[in-house]
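Could you please review the protein record set out just below?
***
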Amino acid sequence: MTNSSEKYEEAVTPTSGDAVEWLVRLRKLAGCGGAFSTLGFEVTEGGIGAAAVAVTLDGRHTNFFGSCHGGVIFALADSALGLAANSYGAAAVAIDAHITFSSAAREGNRLIARATEIRRGRTVAVYRVDVRNVTDRGAEIVSTFTGTVFIRGAQPRRPGASDADSARVPS
């Protein structure tokens, strides 16, 4: 039996820039966690620093007003963020996230969250995720999400150190 860390490592080690291979790898990474499948999310696009996750809303996604629960929209955006941030291979974990809701979504709607990398440094990266309700008439913005991730295992640069010095692990 493999543990989740081994499944993660296997899922995020791309061997080429092939879009199909990226999509397969991101889908494999998404399969490492239970929330993704429990909520009915699916990876629709992916690449280095980018990912799109979709869901068709059903009864399990609604709140007591009959519209999509904000937590579901947040989880969808956060899932796209996580896949985009982890597409490089180094483990990245969210340390900050903000969401703004622009319009409601209802049962039967198809939501797509597209994560785009804004800036990636050695230890921190920032992403924007737009969640849209996609219909045959177009795509209406439902929410805008920004997230910051910490890149685990990265060595912070010491003041005055060169790139070679930063790569060394202190003894």
Remarks:
- Residues 101 and 143 are 4 Å apart (CA to CA).
- The chain has a mean pLDDT of 82.
- The chain is about 25% helix and 35% strand.
